[in-house]
Amino acid sequence: MHRLSRTVLLAGGIAGAFALTTAPAISQAPPGMSALDKSDPATSKQDANLKPHATPPIVTPVDKLPLAKLKLPSGFKAEVFSSGHPGGRTMVMGPNGTIFMGTRLLGRVYAITDKGGKREVRTLLQGLTQPSGLAVKDGALYVLAINKVLRFDDIENKLDNPGEGVDLTDKFNLPDTIHHNWKYAAFGPDGKLYIQVGANCNICEINPGIHGQIRRYNPDGSGMEIVARGVRNTVGFDWHPTTKELWFTDNGRDWAGDAGPEDELNRIAKGQEGAHYGFPYCHANGIPDPDIKIPNACAGVVMPAALTGPHSAGLGILFYTGEMFPKAYQNVAFIARRGSWNKAQKFGYDVVLARTTPDGKAKVEPFMTGLLDQKANEFFGRPTYLFQMKDGSLLVSDEQNGAIYRISYDAKTAEPAARPKKK
Amino acid sequence: MRHTPFIPAKAGIRFLWRRVPAFRGTNGGWSRADPLSLRSLLGLLVLCFAVATDQAMAQTMTLAERIVQCGTCHGEDGNSKLENIPSLAGQPAFFTLNQLILMREGVRKVEAMAPFVKDLTDADIQALADHFEKLPAKPSEETVDPALAERGAKIAAQRRCESCHLPSLAGQQQMPRLAKQRIDYMVHAMKQYLTDRRSGADTAMTAAIFGLRDEDIVALAHWAAGK
């Protein structure tokens, strides 16, 4: 039953794993917590008591939502779009307007419908293992949980009785390891289903044939191709509206210091499908890994388009193409940063903009803030994913509070200085 | 006595049977219960399960009644006297809340618990979690082997157990108290993590425990129970 161990042993961690299975050698074991985490606490010099923040599995009452704390540029307004869906993070929409929401811990997929101007939340599916990967095509909802791929045809007509779905797990043949294997999924402009397969560790030698990839598949699970390698764990990507190139966020490793290595925003340039993004040897803007050392660690590695901050956990990314926001936001990427855990002074917990530049890079600037009190080192919410509504408003999911905020723009409420020049 | 249709009493015993390592023969030499105590243990299990299933139907139980129901297996004072059944006393409320909700949702699959959590509301679960957090944790009747505990301490330092479970091992938020927990239960729980049958609130535990052998786990359990 040790499928996990077999995978990693094959992945090249043989020396490390051997040391761990030899009982008397524990005191002289090489740095690293386990074969799934080769970080050395002595060199990281971080507060040893840092730990992941808990996500509440129960409803946050509407009056406890941190709406009043949200800060936006002039002319923008946030309101509560929906709530009462604990742990909800990813968002996709069916052709009839149903919003589907995936979770991790709670194992649920929600369906949010409009009922007389108010949102109605249903628990559509439950008992799945981290069903965070959702995608919609031809009226079917694709649900990607850990080692499970299900398709629910004509889902919007079956919201009260979705059934078991069509099981495509064997067709996709994704690895069954748990760590970093919750999914992000999206259909690309080429009609293919893009899925990430994260590194099955914090920092370790991975099997590059299986882990640390972005892949694309035909919708039925056939025709797999690797489009990016050496990607630690991206759980958000989108295609640039004009260049059609894939941009993805990537979460940097932990336990190598509070200052980083910083998270990344990456671009797969045309014709560069299959390129290597550095993990586990090279991080951020060319920082060789302190624990897994090889010569010329960054040779041939694609450098990020932008750094997105230490441990900031950039998840969802969305290129804005709506008509509601000022022209200056056209084709600009919004990135939801869930916020740090492996850092004494908390960081992130916001939505930033990434403005792409002609050289294929990007500049990051703040957009939605207020969920982090830096002085008290305390956070009030965790933005995870973004969704653009047909009217051009922007939905932001807050996994911590099980809520979605709707961000709209009204030129009339903008301060004169901030008001954009006539389109 | 009214028996409920959720799990027939017989099947219930079978579930519990499988969950008691001594019966499964997978104890790997870490606990050798003698036949007499096994028989009395079995009697206890039948009793506590019968009492508990009888009440599982009642959806309008008071908090006090639910606490009594939990206590039949987990100990009246929240400190379990039954092999392989965890103590709940002194567990961080968030941990108990999380786990009961995951069991209710079918994410964490514990067959013996299924009928009891099935109809619990979030508020019921919160109240139970708050109750058990306040109870003082007491050590079980198991004997902590000092040599094993010492070896466990070394493994724990490498695996950084205390960074999440705290140096006192009292646990915090979603991370459980390990201090004074039953040794047999901790061995069982760690095996679940090792074989991907449980993934925890995050996948951090999967990474922390990866690659350990049965004897490492037993050593860790002795170390933690003795804290």
Describe this structure in words.
The complex is a heterodimer of chains A (423) and B (227). With 423 residues, chain A is mainly beta. Chain A is built from four helices and 29 strands. Chain B has helices spanning 9-19, 21-24, 35-56, 63-74, 93-105, 114-117, 122-134, 146-159, 161-165, 183-194, 204-209, 214-225. Chain B is built from twelve helices and no strands. In chain B, helix 5 runs antiparallel to helix 7 (122-134). Residues 1-40 of chain B have low confidence and may be disordered. Chain B is an all-alpha fold. Chain A binds chain B through residues 1-5, 8, 17, 20-21, 23, 26-27, 29, 33-37, 41, 48-55, 57-59, 105-108, 126-130, 146, 176-180, 201-202, and chain B through 94, 97-98, 101-102, 105-107, 122, 125-126, 151, 154-155, 158-160, 162-164, 166, 172-175, 194-196, 199, 201-204, 206-213, 215-216.
Task: Fill in the keyword field for this structure.
heterodimer, A: mainly beta, 5-stranded mixed sheet, 5% helix, B: 227 residues, mainly alpha, Cytochrome Bc1 Complex, Chain D, domain 2, 56% helix, disordered N terminus
Radius of gyration of chain B: 17 Å
How much strand content do the residues of chain B show? under 5%
- Look at the helices and sheets of chain A and give the structural class: mainly beta
Profile the largest sheet of chain B.
Answer: none
Q: Supply the CATH architecture of the largest domain in chain B.
A: Orthogonal Bundle
How far apart lie the N and C ends of chain B? 42 Å
Count of the domains of chain B = 2
Number of helices of chain A: 4
CATH class placement of the largest domain in chain B: Mainly Alpha
Kindly name the structural category of chain B: mainly alpha
**In DSSP terms, counting alpha (H) and pi (I) runs of 4 or more, how many helices of chain B?**
12
Mean pLDDT of chain A: 91
Please give the number of β-strands of chain B. 0
Give the fraction of residues assigned to helices of chain B: 55-70%
Strands of the widest sheet of chain A, in order across it, are: 10-11-12-13-17
Q: Spans of chain B of 5+ residues with little confidence (pLDDT < 50)?
A: 1-40
Order of helices and strands of chain B: HHHHHHHHHHHH
Shape of chain B: globular
